[in-house]
Every structure is written in C-alpha cells, then in structure tokens.
Recover the amino acids of this structure.
C-alpha cells in the first residue's frame, strides 16, 4: 500500500503514475481533497468546490463522495477509463465512459490524502432474515402452516398487489398466504384482506381462506384477523450464516 499525506500536486501525479496508472485494474485509488466536478453525458451537472473523497475501483468504477449522505454525489460505472494530469497548478482526473458516452472531470486544487492499494476480495455476501426465507420455508414444508396444504404459485398477481403464496388446503379451498419476515403488523392484515377480496372477485359466497404467516404475530394483530375472518400462523425460519471464525483441526497444526 502507498500512502501520500498532504502531497504536492506534483507528488500526487508521480505517485499515481507509478503505483496506480500502470496497472489500474489491480489497484484501488482513493483521493481526499478540495475539488470541483464537471460532468457531461446523458445530462449535465456541475459541482463547485468542496472537500470530497474520490474512489477509483479496480473495475473502473469512479465514485465522488461528499462528507454526508450514503450515495455518491456523482459516479461513473465499471469500464470507465481514467487519466491524470496537471494544468495551471491543478490536479485533474479525467474519466470517460463509452455506451453511453459520458465524461467527468474532477479538478483538485488541494489534496489531503492519497492511498493506493491492491485489494483482493472474492467473497460472496450471504443475506438472511428476508421475507423470501419465510416463503422458502413454507414452500419446502407446507405442513408448517397446516397439514394437507399445497402451494400452487409463488407471487400471484392480483388487482391490489402481489400475493406471496397461493394454494389449496386439503379440502381444495383456495388459500391466500401473506408472509412477513419479522413481526406482523396491522397493515399486513389489511393487505391480506384485499388479496382475499381480489380472489373472490366480488362474490362473497365463494370460500377463500387468508392466512398471515410471520415469525411473530402480536395479540392485537390476531384480534384484527379474527374480526375479518382471517387466520394466522407463526412460521419461523432458520438463519444460517457460515462461521468464518470456527477453527478446524488444520488451524491447530
């Protein structure tokens, strides 16, 4: 890793050329300093002077971050090409991208920090605790809701929205299942009620069951479900993430 603290414009350019520009696909570049940003492309934008963080990733992504907000204020996607030069005591980062044709110019008049590093990361993120986890649990084992339940369709489109799960019980009665990943709310009850109404298509004599499934259903929600002749079932899902800290026998050799 190469770190330049409060470099001159010339030192910054030399460091970037030596440690980054020769192999940009293998080095991550971060520049913190006082800059302005001029963008031409599908639209036009100009960002006046301010202290910002510029991130140039190994795949060509270029991100301009302000001291606040999560998202970059400006950016260019993977595959962008970046050039560096000095003009009138200013350090200039020129970014170009094809298809669509876009250009972004970042102009620094003061640089506080430059870091250049070769990073390696091939890990894939594992996300648990989503509604899809509860849905998957029910699809793989419908009996966790009730015996004889058969799931016919996942994400069934109706007038008022998308039903999470649709199927039939052991008596061939249509069943609408609304799934929530954590604690069920009053809104979920009204949502389920509308879905059941859509399946009935205006014929209240038709029997259609509605079941709200979630890891936890408060008493207040249960009472409202009963008022609307709807049902509920607490369905939990197992959260399994790999334990990277678990040691194997090889670690102790």
């Amino acid at each position: 890793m190469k770190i330049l603290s409060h470099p001159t414009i010339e030192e910054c350019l030399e460091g970037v050329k030596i440690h980054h520009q020769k192999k940009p696909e293998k080095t991550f570049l971060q520049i913190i300093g006082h800059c302005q940003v001029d963008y031409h492309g599908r639209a036009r934008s100009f960002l006046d002077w301010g202290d910002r963080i510029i991130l140039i990733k190994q795949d060509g992504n270029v991100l301009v971050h302000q001291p606040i907000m999560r998202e970059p204020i400006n950016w260019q996607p993977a595959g962008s090409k970046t050039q560096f030069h000095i003009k009138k005591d200013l350090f200039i980062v020129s970014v170009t991208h094809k298809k669509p044709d876009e250009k972004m110019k970042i102009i620094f008049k003061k640089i506080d920090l430059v870091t250049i590093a070769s990073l390696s990361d091939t890990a894939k993120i594992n996300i648990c605790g989503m509604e899809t986890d509860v849905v998957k649990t029910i699809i793989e084992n419908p009996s966790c809701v009730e015996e004889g339940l058969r799931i016919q369709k996942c994400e069934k489109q109706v007038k008022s929205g998308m039903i999470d799960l649709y199927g039939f019980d052991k008596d061939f009665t249509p069943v609408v299942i609304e799934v929530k990943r954590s604690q069920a709310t009053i809104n979920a009850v009204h949502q389920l009620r509308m879905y059941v109404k859509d399946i009935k298509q205006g014929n209240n004599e038709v029997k259609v069951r509605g079941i709200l499934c979630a890891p936890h259903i408060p008493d207040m929600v249960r009472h409202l479900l009963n008022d609307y002749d709807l049902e509920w079932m607490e369905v939990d899902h197992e959260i399994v993430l790999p334990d990277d800290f678990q040691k194997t026998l090889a670690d102790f050799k």
